[in-house]
Amino acid sequence: MAKTKIKIGKDGIYDARQLGTPKMIVLGFQHMFAMFGATVTVPLLTGLSISTTLLFAGLGTLLFHCLTKFKVPAFLGSSFAFIGGYLAVAPLNADGTGNKELLPYACLGVACAGLLYVIVAACIRAVGVNKVMKLFPPVVTGPIIMAIGLGLAPSAVNNCKSNWWLALVALGLVILFNIFGKGMIKIVPILLGIIGAYLVAVIVGNGFGVESFAIDFSGIKDAPWIGNPIEWSSTVFGGVHDKSLAISAIITIVPIAIATMMEHIGDISAISATCNKNYINDPGLNRTLLGDGLATSIASLFGAPANTTYGENTGVLALSKVYDPRVIRIAAYFAIFFSLSPKFAALIESIPTAVVGGISFVLYGMISAIGVRNVVEAKVDFSKARNTIIAAVILVVALGVSNGVTFNVGATKINLSALACASIAGIMLNLIFPEKDFDPEQAFKADSESKQINLKSDYSKDVESAE
Question: Could you tell me which residues come within 8 angstroms of residue 334 by beta carbon, excluding any fewer than 6 positions away?
Fold first, then answer.
């Protein structure tokens, strides 16, 4: 069979269609699996609906792609940053179930927080992205990206603790497929790792009776095939009746958006570094913020969690080297389709926590590695004291301030996550000790060109063998 040469479009993105429709679908399915575990965790912790969450993760991703000119390969899943806000406004019931009466008020607060993104996006459009990005040179964004991955590491370890043997199976399969696999196998190691580890759990646990590996299929059996993903009484439109509660929820939750916007910039920087394309300049940080904010507001109005660009999918991009946003949109279509099936949600929920942990080992580590690559390729000079201090402070604050910082503004309690605190510290130090010669556009251009040839070569080899 003749080999197909991979061409790069005018926008600098690999055209995944040259892989063929079946392989693009498999890649999209892999991205859906990568986001699923974390995405459904938020409704599990807050009492929101899993089906509604899936529906608006898919719809929010499609809206984000429309607003970013279909250029940014980002998937929008549930944001963990707002969990504290949800629980502050709508604490769980004594039996651990969600507070259905108060959750719509929390969702209203999150919807208003999403509008803050829109306001900031308008400001960026007015003053220009370069003036904003001077606050975020590689010496700031690189350590922040590292901190995103390292901050998620404890979550991966905790998931693995439920069954280390099964977690190691999942991790080992991903490593084997990615390093020694050829063609399509090398491109979808995450999906194959999940399927392989799940089958091992079924065979060992349910076939040979090893209890620690056993999977409970009762939830799958009892769940209906088709269901309505939206419950009207759980939406802002059907569940908000008390004006004072609504105002209190808005005041409590909106300040969280200050922290999540900083995390958004870190995520977009990570995706840019992974794909070697400056998405902060094109389509623009104002557009990515607008897409994230509107997706969050719309999802929250209908009873779904806040949306955010997902680091798990950035890890998949780094592993597969397929950066075409069309693949992400396929994952969004899958999320929408499966949100209509409670039986599928039950199937995914049956995946052992240890399998998710083993997969997360790779994905979260890849994010941190991208941060390291970001500072290396930008040629950040760590012989300069300012650079060393900025990076050191960001990493220590992000990893050391485990519970973030809580303070009161009047009667309102505000909590900044450790990552938000680290971002603020890095930005402030960069302003106090500015790098006079730093040009955001030239720095990113040099960074991108240094890897572009190698990426073209590696990806061409993978797809040629896949063909």
Answer: 28, 29, 32, 58
